[in-house]
Design a protein that fits this description.
The protein has 353 residues and is mostly helical. The chain has 16 helices and 2 strands. Strands 1-2 form a two-stranded antiparallel ribbon. The structure holds farnesyl diphosphate and magnesium ion (MG).
């Protein structure tokens, strides 16, 4: 049996070669974004750091387990959406953008700390998860703490709108996760239902990040709506690709525990596609494997999926959604920030992690 969750040190393969970031190269895109957003991103990092440094006994755990090591995709969405929808960003804008970008990142970090408890996952971002280091009980409190810090930051803005929208996105995250948990073991859910859960789980926070970036710099409503839709579709594409990685990714590259969707009996797109296309007998065979957890369950399910177009369909669906996301940006003026947003939409479905 192939153990896709073996530690990174056991593998000698290099990550896939990076390409020109405009065509989806991972490391180059993140580096170029860091250059482009330079000081703004530095302000976000300092805001995160300050907001989790309240108690010296725990700040190291918060830093390691919760807030560090991510790609900062959501803060980048806030900052890029601001730059793509205005010509000038003043000092007040800069401060509020940093607070909102940090707030969104902390909601994301909190949700992942909790998610790893739910998924019993021990590796994320190439590091042991909070629950692996601290145990489930403390990881839950750590996630709660990060979430309250996020809300405190959002509440510092001149208007209550960012805090209300971030709270709404966080509620949506919880509802999405609850619905997916409640649907565990139900292999008959529709693709529309699956997508709705993903929009709640991942799309809503990305959409909120983009919309708030535009709102903070005073962009008109149409631009706010367009970048908001872009963010939702980007999040959806990102999560479908994530569901593909959960079956076909390799843990040393992806940097987190894989195969958790099947362990949690989540009906994700590869399974839904197979069950919608296969003959009743073939569906029955897969259902039998799905309903009887065994040590070789993952390999057996993968072998069945690989006899069909489930993998290709999942990838194509994610790519189609990322193209649709990019098309939402058509009404924006041509700027470097817009080009980076388009590049991020390609990255969502072309990444190794
Ligand atoms: C990752 O999904 C999980 C999410 C995007 C959302 C999880 C939300 C919660 C646990 C609710 C708690 C929320 C707050 C604000 C405290 P995944 O398991 O499919 O992806 P993964 O492979 O990255 O783990
Ligand atoms: Mg998970």
């Amino acid at each position: 049996m192939i153990d896709r969750n073996r530690s990174e040190a056991e593998f000698t393969l290099d990550p896939p070669a990076d390409r020109d970031f405009r065509r989806g190269g991972t490391a180059e895109l993140v580096d170029s974004l860091r250059d482009f957003l330079g000081r703004d991103l530095g302000r976000v990092e300092r805001t995160i750091e300050q907001s989790i440094s309240g108690d010296p006994r725990y700040s190291a755990s918060f830093r390691q387990a919760g807030a560090m090591g991510g790609k900062r995709l959501r803060p980048m969405l806030v900052l890029l959406s601001a730059r793509a929808t205005t010509e000038s960003i003043n000092v007040r804008h800069q401060q509020e953008l940093a607070q909102i970008a940090a707030s969104v990142e902390l909601v994301h970090a909190a949700s992942l700390v909790h998610d790893d408890v739910l998924d019993e996952a021990d590796m994320r971002r190439h590091q042991p998860t909070a629950r692996a280091k601290l145990g489930n009980r403390r990881a839950i409190l750590l996630g709660d703490y990060l979430f309250t810090r996020a809300y405190a930051l959002a509440a510092q803005c001149r208007s209550t709108l960012p805090a209300r929208q971030i709270a709404a996105a966080a509620s949506s995250l919880c509802i999405g996760e609850l619905s997916q948990g409640d649907a565990s073991g139900d292999w008959t859910i529709s693709q529309a239902n699956y997508r709705r859960m993903l929009v709640q789980k991942t799309g809503s926070l990305c959409g909120t990040a983009c919309r708030l970036g535009a709102w903070l710099v005073g962009a008109d409503r149409q631009l706010q709506r367009s970048v908001g839709r872009f963010g939702v579709l980007l999040g959806l594409a990102f999560q479908i690709y994530d569901d593909w990685l959960d079956y076909w990714g390799e843990a040393p590259h992806v940097g987190k525990t894989l195969g958790t969707d099947l362990k949690q009996a989540k009906a994700t797109l590869p399974i839904l596609r197979y069950l919608s296309e296969a003959s009743p007998e073939a569906c029955g065979e897969l259902r039998e494997i799905l309903d009887s957890p065994a040590p070789d369950q993952f390999d057996r399910v993968l072998a069945v999926l690989n006899t069909s177009d489930a993998e290709q369909y999942t990838l194509e669906t994610a790519k189609r959604l990322s193209d649709r996301a990019a098309s939402m940006l058509r009404i924006l003026p041509d700027t470097e920030a817009k080009q980076f947003l388009v590049a991020l939409s390609h990255y969502a479905t072309n990444r190794s992690r």
